[in-house]
Specification:
253 residues, alpha+beta, Arc Repressor Mutant, subunit A, six-stranded mixed beta sheet, 9 strands, elongated
Length: 253
């Protein structure tokens, strides 16, 4: 059999990725192509598939280093917390996103600019904060510094502290700071446990009143600053840019 060209290799690679909806790693994909077409040089295969997600984003995505998944399977996934939230509750919950973004920027002073992501937004199970803030240097700052992403997971259901905590931890992949935002109707036991967990894991904790006109956000634990993984920072930025270029420009422009 004749050796494959680059476009033919990518076509085979896409078929293999789609045959593995749970994902296939780079080395596995490379070996599978080699087994199917042994006459094709290893270097040609490697050079054709290393950026498969960049060349064919509508068919293949790379949610983590070295892991390829079908785009449809990835983009259709939603956050587990969204699945636990009724549509009416989610609509009510969204009423607190913009007030919190404003509070994060103007009261807590942890973000230069902040924006509501509007519910499921990016539709990615591992990384869709309800509110995203960016702390970045201004033109008047004499000493410039790297930008920081601040993420927040907001819940109006007081019975979901574990779900909120898990999402906020996941946001640390691409965020310098991450906040859990829960209503004051949370039980004292859950609040105590959540405060302890936030201190252990460096998350911030904010409580608020269930009144969108006067939520009275109250800081309980201030988030620690962490160095995010730049792979996931860029992955988040790319998803945001594709989903809403205007919000991307507002935050990072």
């Amino acid at each position: 059999m004749a050796k494959l060209g680059q476009s033919e290799i990518r076509k085979v690679a896409v078929e293999l990725v789609k045959a593995n909806p749970g994902g296939i790693r780079y080395q596995q994909l490379r070996r599978a192509i080699k087994e199917l077409h042994p006459e094709t040089p290893d270097n040609t295969i490697a050079g054709s598939i290393y950026d498969l997600d960049v060349r064919l984003p509508n068919e293949v995505q790379k949610p983590s280093r070295g892991l390829y998944v079908p785009t449809n399977g990835q983009s259709d996934s939603v956050k587990e917390s969204d699945q636990l939230t009724k549509p009416a509750d989610l609509k009510r919950e969204e009423m607190f996103y913009s007030p919190f973004a404003e509070w994060l920027r103007n009261d807590l002073n942890e973000a230069t600019v902040a924006s509501s992501m509007g519910g499921a937004g990016l539709r990615a199970k591992w990384g869709t904060p309800y509110v995203v803030g960016v702390y970045k240097p201004l033109a008047r700052d004499r000493i410039k510094f790297p930008i920081e992403i601040i993420s927040a997971e907001i819940k109006i259901d007081p019975h979901q502290p574990v779900v909120a905590f898990g999402q906020a931890v996941a946001y640390r992949l691409f965020s310098s700071k991450s906040y859990v935002v829960m209503p004051r109707t949370i039980t004292q036991e859950d609040q105590s446990r959540l405060e302890a967990l936030c201190m252990l894991f460096g998350l911030g904790l904010v409580l608020f009143a269930l009144d969108p006109l006067d939520p009275q956000f109250e800081i309980r634990v201030r988030s620690q600053r962490f160095e995010p993984d730049m792979f996931y920072v860029n992955e988040f930025a790319e998803r945001l840019h594709q989903h809403n270029p205007d919000v991307f420009q507002e935050l990072f422009g």
